[in-house]
Amino acid sequence: MESHYSAFPGEPLAAFRLFGTREIDVARDVVGRTFCPHRLEVPRHALASFDTRHNHVAGAFLSLNHLGYGAEVEINPGRLRHFYLVQIPLAGSAQITNGQRSFGVGAGFGSILNPTLPTRMLWHAGCRKLLLQIQRDALHALVQAYLGTALRTPLVFDPMLDFTRPALHDWLIQLSRCVQAAEASRAFGASHYRFQRTIEEELALGLVQAQPSSISHFLQSPCTRPAQAGHVRRARAFIHDHITEPFRIQDLTRAAGCGLRSLQTGFQAAFQVSPQQYAIRARLDLAHARLQLAGPGETVADIAYDCGFAHLGRFAQAYQRVHGQPPSVTLKTGKAAGGAAGAFDAAGLREGHITST
Questions:
Q1: Which end of the chain is more exposed for a tag (fewer CB within 10 A), N or C?
Q2: Residue closest to 311 by CA, chosen among 188, 209, 189
């Protein structure tokens, strides 16, 4: 069955096959160990078409999955407790109940299961989904760093995802890039990508910003405590001091002394970009210097990954937009000049003007 989304053609994550079986008990056991124990029931008329395939690759605090059962199945996990589960139907449809909400999903619509609410699902025959599992405690810590205050109640999302909304459509593209990076062995799994947690935090925070939830009123109201100049200076210094290292959002906010949302307001006023965009531009400038000084064996991919870019195509587009030429041209020019096209000046990068990418 053809995918609902062109960004996820064929069978996503096929290289990360966890298992495949026609045995219901085996499927229930293995999926249960990956996610949580649950009831899995197949109507008698659907037994002959039951055929489960589950692809799974883990990151620091989230995992990417592709799962299909072939047949119609009823799934009752109760409360997930320790994780949120984003479900994006790639083919077919399903009926979802999370808490008091019950709705259908299919092309253009998905679901996010809140761990504190009971869940029941009916996957229709031919339904297969891309699943994003996010650890509850890690997401709560990320949201607290973003808001600059403690969460006094669990974060609860509107369980229905409408990918026709521009914000969620853009987030879906962000997710597809993570899947592509995993399939290219550039992130997730055994890739040992140094910036793994960074891309996971961007993906998880992007979901929080795009999907209505119990904290939407905080996100939509004006920031009443914007970062002071000292907060922005400390955050900016932290970014440049750790430009070649992965750092967590909590590390940045701790160094600055305020929440990320306040920092975003401060950076927007000072540099017309968010702290995350500022860091990307700084890393693009670092990549520019590295490409100019590249040794004989270094490639564009080597330098891009060292500077924190997991998706080579996205890096090349951003680099050309900022520096006016493809990174391969800069690399070729630098090597032709014997690596003397320019010297990387850390102080110059620190004091350089950062503009929007």
A1: N
A2: 188
pTM reported for the whole predicted model: 0.81
pLDDT digits (tens, 9 = 90+) for 176-208: 999 999 999 999 998 888 899 999 999 999 999
| Pick from 251, 255, 254, 277: nearest CA to 264 | 277
- For residue 281, the one-letter residue type is R
Q: Which domains does the chain have, with CATH numbers?
A: 14-176 (2.60.120.10), 224-357 (1.10.10.60)
pLDDT digits (tens, 9 = 90+) for 238-282: 999 988 888 888 999 999 888 888 888 888 888 898 888 899 999
Count Cα neighbours of 183 within 13 Å in the Cβ-side half-sphere. 16
Nearest C-alpha neighbor of 149 from the set 253, 270, 234, 49: 253
- Measure the CA–CA gap between 122 and 124, rounded to whole angstroms: 6
The three-point CA angle 87-62-175 to 5° equals 55
